[in-house]
């Protein structure tokens, strides 16, 4: 550091410190060299009086300034880095959730309605994530309901019957909103009342006590504007409060929606909740749409059924026509065959109908036919099918009904017709009668053609025997065959389908024969399996077991139904039946090979049997097999003067007969069979 004073001429007047040797220039805060700063302070104009010169060594200051600069730079760099880091962190915190939201929104837009975001922060981003998930859940729920509604539309429009459709509507409608029960009540245009309803999920007590009063809640659903509804619960602001019946059922709320099609009142549909006392707005919205869809579907299927009914309904009587009868008889035969159930058919013909037309006119005949059309359904079950077969002839299909039940139904119909009084168009009344023929499946024919034909034959017999009566085919065939046993061969030559009707007619001779042939046939099949018979022998044995007793047609009923001991003359009749049966099948080319088996099925292994006394291996093998089956079936049935044996007792008797009455080897095979 130095100070120097000079005058205007540049002469040094005073100095202090380390004064440099010379000045190079005059400047203010100018730098003289790399180490020293100089300051010149002139006195007077342009330094005329002199100048004060100051100077100092800048090295220490420069070092301090450099240090300050470096520290400032470091601080600035640290600040910049910190700012950048914070910006990155903030950016990541914002952009990652936003990207997650964007991706989830895109996935939902593409159809992934179950997509959600996992944002768990407690700030605005977290709240946005929660809101987004709620929105996604609402979209998913509504989309699922729309999909369910679409699926429902496809399903209910593809069903074939009204009842099936109603079941689908109730089930799927409840599922759309989680309702626990549903009901459809139908409106009767003629009476102005709701007179029929179907339900789902409601107790029998509730359904039994349901009522739809005129002008009530169900009617109110129509008074309001289209697309509206009536809601019922126990909330204070609700107009329609729940009844005691509702409370007893556990119902907390229900909604009633109108079913309308082209301004026509079809009915109303109810949905009941037991878990809460309200329906959400979107639930109401989708149920309103669903009700409209259901109404259209119901109207369409009603129209289809009406059209179909016209095609299969007899216009005059209102009964089913021949076309539907032909379809249903085939269906019922298939069902009876599949489930091994009886099936009966009635053929009904109005007696002296031509006389009614000739005497009172065809209009009177139409009235008689119409009265029968009204009468038959009242006398039958819902599963039965009455139909007009043609002219004055009617039919009734009776599913799961044997000949005993069919006879009772036929008699009930005959008596009801005889007691009917018909008012004629021109005044006055007349009465009329009808004859009934009955056939049973499969014993009177195992195909539709023979089944119907045999019922018609029974009807013809009823007419021939005096009219106003019921005749069973098995009984009239029995009489025909008794009068002319050779007719058996004729029927078998016509068709082997007549085997069962013939066997049934023969079995009608005695209660003891009711199911004997069927039992023998069943046991023969089991024996054939135990003996490992070939297919041809099995078929032969099956036919022989069915026909082995047809010769009994020549034995008087009094002998077959005798309760006491048989006389020698009685036994003479009975011992003729194998030869009679063999003689009949001999006349049928397709059955001729059965004759030796049938002829000798009562031969004994020890030679003491009939009709020819054959012994041991001289007896045809299948005749020996049939003998075991026939003997066991007789022991297991109620027979003349004897009681039914237990299976164990019958098997013991069979074992004791080995080597005497029966072939011991076949008996051994029989005893190895399960006790069935």
**CATH homologous superfamily title of the largest domain:** Hypothetical protein af1432
Mean pLDDT: 84
Spans where pLDDT lies below 50 across 5 or more residues: 23-32
What is the CA-atom radius of gyration, in angstroms?
54 Å
Distance between the termini: 138 Å
Helix percent reads 40-55%
SSE inventory with pairings:
Blueprint: E1 2-7, E2 12-17, E3 30-31, E4 36-43, E5 50-57, H1 59-109, H2 124-156, H3 162-177, E6 181-188, E7 193-200, H4 204-208, H5 217-223, E8 230-232, H6 244-249, E9 253-261, E10 264-273, H7 281-312, H8 322-339, E11 343-350, H9 353-360, H10 362-379, E12 385-390, E13 393-399, H11 403-418, E14 421-423, E15 429-431, E16 434-441, H12 448-464, E17 470-472, H13 473-483, H14 486-494, H15 499-507, H16 516-530, H17 535-547, H18 557-560, H19 568-574, H20 577-586, H21 595-599, H22 621-635, H23 647-656, H24 664-672
Parallel strand pairs: 16-17
Antiparallel strand pairs: 1-2, 1-5, 3-4, 4-5, 6-7, 6-10, 8-9, 9-10, 11-13, 11-16, 12-13, 14-15
Helix pairs in contact: 1-2, 2-3, 2-7, 3-7, 9-10, 10-11, 12-13, 13-15, 16-17, 16-22, 17-22
Can you describe what's shown?
The protein is of the alpha+beta class and 676 residues long. It folds into four domains: 2-57, no CATH class; 157-310, GAF domain (Beta-Lactamase), CATH 3.30.450.40; 316-480, Reverse transcriptase/Diguanylate cyclase domain (Alpha-Beta Plaits), CATH 3.30.70; 484-676, Hypothetical protein af1432 (Orthogonal Bundle). Helix content is 51%, strand content 16%. It has a five-stranded antiparallel sheet. Helix 1 (59-109) packs parallel to helix 2, helix 3 (162-177) packs antiparallel against helix 7 (281-312) and helix 9 (353-360) crosses helix 10 (362-379). It is elongated, with a radius of gyration of 54 Å. It starts with a strand and ends with a helix. Mean pLDDT is 84; it is low at 23-32. This is diguanylate cyclase. InterPro entries: Diguanylate_Cyclase (IPR050469), GAF (IPR003018), GAF-like_dom_sf (IPR029016), GGDEF_dom (IPR000160), HAMP_dom (IPR003660), HD/PDEase_dom (IPR003607), HD_GYP_dom (IPR037522), Nucleotide_cyclase (IPR029787). It comes from Candidatus Muproteobacteria bacterium RIFCSPLOWO2_01_FULL_60_18. One of its GO terms (biological process) is negative regulation of bacterial-type flagellum-dependent cell motility. Its EC number is 2.7.7.65.
